[in-house]
Structures are given as C-alpha cells and as structure tokens.
Input
Amino acid sequence: MTASPDVVILADHSIWLALPAFAPAFVVAGVVFYIARKNRQKTDETGEP
Output
C-alpha cells in the first residue's frame, strides 16, 4: 500500500451555493433602507415631525 498524500483544501465553494439565498435578502434590505431614507427626507422638507 502506498501512503496517501496530504490533502489541503484551499477553497470551499459552499459560499457560492449560498449566495442565491442571501441575494434577495440584501435586495429587500436595500429597498427598505431606500424607502425609509426617502420618507425621512420628505418629512424634513415639510417641517412636520
């Protein structure tokens, strides 16, 4: 029997598999942030709290 060489895993591609699950969450968070920012600017212009 021959000795097996040492195996070093340099990269794990599971992050690429998880990206499609996280991308919609980032999009939704961005839209919510955008709307909240627009509404805050809108109330500042009118002077109403």
About this structure: Residues 14-46 form the longest helix (33 residues).
